[in-house]
Amino acid sequence: MHIIACIKQVPDSAQIRVHPVTNTIMRQGVPTIINPYDLYALEEALRLRDTFGGEVTVLTMGPPSAEDSLRKALTFGADRAILLTDRFFAGADTLATTYALATAIRKIATTYGAPDIVFTGKQTIDGDTAQVGPGIAKRLGLLQLSYVARIVSLGPTTRGIEVERRAEGGMQILRGRLPCLVTMLEATNEIRRGSLADALRAARSTIVKWNAQEVGVEDMSKCGLRGSPTIVKRVFAPTARTEKAALIEPGGREPAEALIEEIFKRQPKLESDLVTLARGF
Amino acid sequence: MTEPTKTPARPPAGRAGAKKELPEHFKAYKHVWVFVEQERGQVHAVSWELMGAGRKLADKLGVELAAIVLGPSGAATSGLAAEAFCYGADLAYLVADDVLADYRNESYTKALTDLVNTYKPEILLLGATTLGRDLAGAVATTLLTGLTADCTALDVDADGSLAATRPTFGGSLLCTIYTLNYRPQMATVRPRVMPMPERVERLVGRIIEHPLGIVENDIVTKVLGFMPDRDSAKSSLAYADVVVAGGLGLGSPENFQLVRQLAGVLGAEYGCSRPLVQKGWAAPDRQIGQTGKTIRPKLYIAAGISGAIQHRVGVEGADLIVAINTDRNAPIFDFAHLGIVADAIPLLPALTEAFRRRLSPHTRDRIAS
After folding, report:
1. Would you call A21 an interface residue with chain B, using a CB distance cutoff of 8 Å?
2. Is A266 in Cβ contact with B337 (below 8 Å)?
3. Does B162 fall in a domain?
4. Does A30 contact B at CB distance below 8 Å?
């Protein structure tokens, strides 16, 4: 089995600060991490390799510093890491991103063997679009299995795959065929710690780096900002409500009683609604 | 979406400023479409919320609003088209085929891309549900057009372009995104972000039927079954009338119980802010905010939640937001209606007790007599 896991290096969102005057992101000193959703994809890829044999190739597109995340992925046990990096890729929206990643996956297929499964996380924590996985699938003509909670069975020789897929109100059980693209749901597995041997190997490994030309991009106008149909026209902080919250001063009253009085004063109909609701439980 | 990487305060150089004319072959693209999401006979309420938003866009553009209805052949599916007229659609495009009985990416992508290529809409809106996101990403890539995910506001600017606003950078800022030179302009919106329009009984409306053009044997994916969620309450958080939520100010995972207890007395749903999910104190489906659920309850009580923008965009539609926080300067007091500077840990049980007394039938009967 050859499995590709796509990951993205993202700023640790818990530490993002916005400049109060310029409304720009203050990136200085913000640590980067592997997009947490991608770790479920990577772990699932590693588990399948451990069960069925084969190799896991990790792929990312990003600035040269994204090498850090690839090396981290190698310490978890990935066999090979590929960095797609070129200034022509900068400013890409999801459509231009999937063009570059799909081109890279074709190159991986001819260089290291065609993938049986391509994994992505369900979305990233900085973009939150959930569009890149489906986009790669469509560009490569792979069967698209999104929001997968569990791979129930897999037959490397029969080429069959059965999954549980998160749908509204329940789990859909689907049978498909390899090769396919799987976007992995969160909290479905736990990334391994990685062995000492993997850590040593990761430190010594060479990360394969491809620029646009090396990866085989034929049409530069499909890359980066130029290849992006969407345009960000404005970035802004939401306007503050003109009125701030009215703060309760309990005075001599119990704070809880004072708060409830004020709630019902503002929403007189709420009390009868609450009685109905509360009785329903 | 586009992820501006360098100087987000300025538009990308040489792109947003220089507005090219729409390519000739896209000029035929007219009208606003809303995808009506149904699964196993159940229509998702987000479809009607979007119909309300789509109606406003169509009126502003002076064009028609169409409902896109895909499903198995039969009265249930065509009934959805009629229902769409009651929520404001002028017409409906209907692909009714038993191959579409269950949602599968292959068949639904085929049906929707065929409709777009045949009837050419300028705007296409879908719900940002698991189904809608799965479908929208595939359709936008197939059509090679722009798609803006999880919009919190939709508008049409002076020259008729769709202005789609969404949170960016993990919800710390908002951005407005355009798809200027491609059609259709696609966007997804999460459930409960747009208000539910009033349902008005209407019988008028045209239904245009379109064939699917593939048969079951053409489709690789087979649906083997469906396991409904055991905890049916999980999916009702977005549509709850009363919601109580807790944040990091609770101090420990054990104290999250205090939130659940107050919710229990109120017959409410409980939720949490994003850090609690990241810390593993609460399940991901309880998260309220941009990356979790958007809510529009009559009453929202936020305990120990500071009120980051990504949380704010998920709760702003609430009728009454009540904030409990020890920090007088917490951003949540900027958008809550009512606040109390207090420690939630003693206040929550006190509220639970006070509400219990107030709402108990015994107390009420006594007051009445």
Report:
1. no
2. yes
3. yes
4. no
Residues of chain B with Cβ-Cβ distance to A169 below 8 Å are 39, 42, 228-229, 235
Q: Give domain status of residue B12, yes or no.
A: no
- The domain in which residue B62 lies consists of 24-218
Q: Is the pLDDT of residue B93 over 90?
A: yes
Query: What CATH number corresponds to the domain at position B39?
Result: 3.40.50.620
Query: Which of B144, B353, B359 has the CB atom closest to A278's CB atom?
Result: B359
**Omega of the bond prior to B184 within 30 degrees of 0, cis?**
yes
- Which of B220, B228, B361 lies nearest to residue A170, judging by beta carbons? B228
- Domain end position, chosen among B168, B186, B218: B218
The DSSP secondary structure of B124-145, one letter per residue, reads EEEE-SHHHHHHHHHHHHHHT-
Say if residue B173 is in the same domain as residue B258: no
Compute the nearest-CA separation of B208 from chain A (Å). Answer: 28
C-alpha span between B180 and A8 (Å, rounded): 27
- B93 and B165 share one domain: yes
CB-CB under 8 Å, B337 with A169: no
Residue B5 lies in a domain: no
Look at A246 and B338 and tell me if their CB atoms are within 8 Å: yes
pLDDT digits (tens, 9 = 90+) for B24-81: 999 999 999 999 999 988 899 999 999 999 999 999 999 999 999 999 999 999 999 9
Q: Which helix (H) or strand (E) holds A88?
A: none
Which residues in chain A touch residue B130, judged by CB atoms under 8 angstroms apart?
A: 146-147, 166-168
Distance from CA of B197 to the nearest CA of A (A): 21
d(CA A217, nearest CA chain B) in Å? 17
A230:B220 CB<8 A: no
The total number of structural domains in chain B stands at 2
Q: What is the ipTM of this complex?
A: 0.90
**Residue A117 burial (CB < 10 Å; 0-12/13-18/19+)?**
buried
What is the Cα–Cα distance from A269 to A260, expressed in whole angstroms?
A: 13
Average pLDDT across chain B, whole number: 90
Using the beta-carbon criterion (under 8 Å), do B12 and A133 form an inter-chain contact? no
For residue B369, what is the enclosing H or E element? none
- Give the model confidence (pLDDT) of A59-107 as tens digits: 999 999 999 999 999 999 999 999 999 999 998 999 999 999 999 999 9
Q: Rounded CA gap, B10 and A233, in Å?
A: 8
Residues B40 and B189 in one domain: yes
pLDDT (tens digit per residue) in B202-241: 878 999 999 999 999 999 999 999 998 876 545 589 999 9
Of B44, B267, B361, the CB nearest to A168: B44
Sort residue A154 into left (φ over 0), alpha (ψ -120 to 50) or beta: beta
Residues B141 and B245 reside in one and the same domain? no
Place of tokens 């749903």: B269
Structure token digits, residue B323: 């904030």
Instruction: Give SS3 for A46.
Output: helix
- What single-letter amino acid sits at A275? V
Residue B15 lies in a domain: no
Q: Which residue of B has its CA nearest to A257?
A: B354
- What CA–CA distance (Å, rounded) separates A132 from A96? 10
DSSP single-letter state for residue B41: T
Q: Is residue B204 domain-shared with residue B243, that is, in the same domain?
A: no
Kindly state which CATH superfamily the domain A2-222 is placed in.
HUPs (3.40.50.620)
Task: Please identify, among B194, B218, B242, the residue that sits at the C-terminal boundary of a domain.
Answer: B218
From chain B, the residues in CB contact with A258 under 8 A are: 340
